[in-house]
Amino acid sequence: MKSVRRTKIAPDAPTLGRTASMHSLRSANGDDNNGGGGEDWLPPKVLLKPAGQLQLTETELNEELTRILNANNPHAPQNIARFNHRERVFKASPNVDHLVVHFEFDGYMSYKNVDESSAPAPVKDSVAVVEPPSGEAGTATEEAGTPTPAAEAGKDGGEGLEEKAKEEEQKKPKGPLRNQFNFSERASQTINNPFRERWTNTEPPPQRTLSDTVNQWSIYDAYVEDQLQKEKAKAKAPAGGAGAKGLKDEDKNILPTETHTEDVYYKNTDLRRALIIIERMANQNTFDEIAQDYKYYEDASDDLTPSKGSLLPLWKFLCEKEKRKQVTALSWNSRFSDFFTVGYGSYDFSNQGPGMVAGFTLKNPSYPEFLYVTDSGVMSLDFHPQHHSMIAVGLYDGSVAVYSMQEKSDAPLFKSAPKAGKHTDPVWQVSWQKDDLDGNANFFSISTDGRVTQWTLLKTELNHTDVIKLRLEMQSPQEIEGSIDDGQLFSLAGGSCFDFHKQLDHLFVVGTEEGKIFKCSKEYNNQYLLSFEGHQMSVYAVRYNHFHHNVFISASADWTVKLWDHDEDKPIMSFDLNSSVGDIAWAPYSSTVFAAATADGKVCVFDLAENKYEPISEQQVVRKAKLTHISFNPFEPVLLVGDDKGQVISLKLSPNLRKKNKSGDDEATKLKNIILIARGQSPTD
Amino acid sequence: MSLPKDSITKDYTDVEATLSRITSHTGVQGIVIATHEGSVIRSTLDNIQTQQISTLVTQLAARGKSVVRDLDPEDDLTFLRIRSRKNEIMVAETKQYLLITIQNPNELQKGWI
């Protein structure tokens, strides 16, 4: 920035002023006419005085005149009058501008690289020297009315300056240019949220170390369980509607069982089963030798004496509870080869009491599998051949009962009512027959009251039908009709045993206490088809042969066993056993083998094919006891005999006693031939 | 109402009778009924023996079961008989319980005939 101050010596007089201006003119032109004029700036050597110059005295010269400088423009008109259009008069304007601009200079610097037209205009960099002109100075410079050469020259200079300024002004951008030096960078930062860390220590969750050995089967189990649950869920899903109630019921069901499982071990059926098996195991250990004998021992002496056999005693079955009872019945189960039932009672009239039915298995000789206690002594029992769990029982008091092993209770499934057809005497034999046409199981019973009764198992009751009443003398039907009163009762024969024909369902033979045997039919209840005379004392057992259907055998208290053809009233053969024969049984495997149990404790086994006169095995099985019953196992070569001491002995038949057909003949023809020989005829081939 | 009660007591007496029969059987030293975990439900032996048997035999039975199951996952152990010089240990395995019986098989001969 430049400022030029033009100082002027105000001349006291206008003349002085004139000379001064002349001086400046001369110097401006460069033309120095006056010798002295050229050295204007030099200290004047010669004081020139105009002629008319007032001569002042020294005092006058030294007199001081005071002049005051003020800011009023001396040249400014003081009486400017302007026409006021509003008032339509000339009015003197009171305000006179006293401002005089002596010098004005704009800055010419601009940014090098910025296009001035586009860049914002820099702040106007101008300096204005404002000087309130004194009256004299004003006259010298700005008096436009009197242009002097000096003033003109000054004007020229001023005009040049003004032009320059104007040019600059044009060059200058319109807007203010930013002052680059006035730059201040301002930045502000938002408040940063202070970091906060907050933590609490929770109670650590319980830890468990879970380790397990996984093997194939545990994985398998897991899958099976999963499968079961899926199926359960599936089954539940359709029944979702009744869910609420079902759930409740389930809860009810689940709760008690869960609470009970711990302590009520004896209710666990699995455990009970295991207990039974353990008991059998213990017995197996105890009776290991017998078991080996039962399975593998064969009497070697049989090879040496082909016509003789032997019986090997195996287990003995004794019911501890009823030592004084007699074995009154034996029956093998038709399905399980090791299972049989024993009936306990008493044949002694004066020593009656409650009886028992005990089911034994060969696997556990020490204790029966089940026990039914009956009010009266058991006299007879029979396993149903098809319904393996059904046992028909005949009691001493004349009633019959049916037990089922499937029932949990010890009570019989059926029991004959005292009024409805109950026998009045002991029931000596019961025997299941084929189911009737309606599919109801039925069995027959015989008693010494002379009746043979058929019992049919209906759903709720036991229905009875008297099949036949055994009369001692049965000549003609007319006679019977006449004697229907008391006489009839007395004339009834006491039946003691019977057996049905193996093929003809209606045909059966009945043995009586009187020693007579009758052939009867269900169809003719008034008449015997045939009566067999031969025994002098009570007949204890009659048995049809398993193969030759017309042949039966009888055992009697008169020490004899007789073989009969049911079409002939005379026996074919008779065997004297020297003791009362308690029971007799055909072997299930051979038509010619039968075994008899005698009162002197012997078991006699006959094989008619070997010896028609003598037993091929006669063996003392018990001492001081009577054998009461005998029974062949339907599957194994085992014979059971019961005695009157309550003991049951199992015997193994030696190979000679279980010879089957040697010649390859039919079993029936084998027996037939023997019978023919016995009759003195020649056997047919 | 008395019927279920009767059946429970009948169950109980039946099982107890069977247990006492087995216990009194020739050569039988005692019976222990234990769970698979080894806790004893019922025992006819003294405390020390019971403790020993229940812990050891259950382990063996579990091992045996594992063997059987490993061979065939659908198979299962039902019985385990261990014959030692002196005794036979018979273990019957059920779903919930182990029935352990100790029997001395050499004691038998005199009892028979």
UniProtKB/TrEMBL annotation, chain A:
Transmembrane residue ranges: none
Residue spans of biased composition, Basic and acidic residues class: 153-172
Primary residence: cytoplasm
Record keywords: Cell projection, Cytoplasm, Cytoskeleton, Dynein, Microtubule, Motor protein, Repeat, WD repeat
WD repeat boundaries on the chain: 532-574
GO molecular function per UniProt: dynein heavy chain binding; dynein light chain binding
Positions of region (Disordered): 1-44, 130-179, 234-254
InterPro entries cross-referenced by the UniProt entry: Dynein_IC, WD40/YVTN_repeat-like_dom_sf, WD40_repeat_dom_sf, WD40_rpt
Record's keyword annotation contains Cytoplasm: yes
Composition skew (Low complexity), residue ranges: 135-152
Superkingdom in the source lineage: Eukaryota
Localization, UniProt: Cytoplasm, Cytoskeleton, Cilium axoneme
GO BP terms, alphabetized: cilium movement; outer dynein arm assembly
Pfam families from the UniProt entry: WD40
Any single GO CC term annotated in Swiss-Prot or TrEMBL for this entry: outer dynein arm
Family: Belongs to the dynein intermediate chain family.
Protein name: Dynein intermediate chain 1, cytosolic
TrEMBL record, chain B:
Keyword Protein biosynthesis appears in the UniProt entry: no
Roadblock/LAMTOR2 domain mapped to chain residues: 15-103
GO molecular function ontology, one term from the record: dynein intermediate chain binding
GO BP annotation list: microtubule-based movement
Transmembrane segments: none
A Pfam family per the record: Robl_LC7
Matching SUPFAM superfamilies: Roadblock/LC7 domain (SSF103196)
Compartments, as annotated in UniProt: Cytoplasm, Cytoskeleton
InterPro entries: DYNLRB1/2 (IPR016561), Roadblock/LAMTOR2_dom (IPR004942)
One GO CC term on file: cytoplasmic dynein complex
SMART domains referenced in this protein's UniProt entry, alphabetically: Robl_LC7 (SM00960)
Record-linked Gene3D superfamilies: Dynein light chain 2a, cytoplasmic (3.30.450.30)
Keyword annotations of the record: Cytoplasm, Cytoskeleton, Dynein, Microtubule, Motor protein, Transport
Protein task: Acts as one of several non-catalytic accessory components of the cytoplasmic dynein 1 complex that are thought to be involved in linking dynein to cargos and to adapter proteins that regulate dynein function. Cytoplasmic dynein 1 acts as a motor for the intracellular retrograde motility of vesicles and organelles along microtubules.
PANTHER family: DYNEIN LIGHT CHAIN ROADBLOCK (PTHR10779)
Protein family per UniProt: Belongs to the GAMAD family.
Name of the protein described by the UniProt record: Dynein light chain roadblock
Organism: Powellomyces hirtus
Lineage per the UniProt record: Eukaryota, Fungi, Fungi incertae sedis, Chytridiomycota, Chytridiomycota incertae sedis
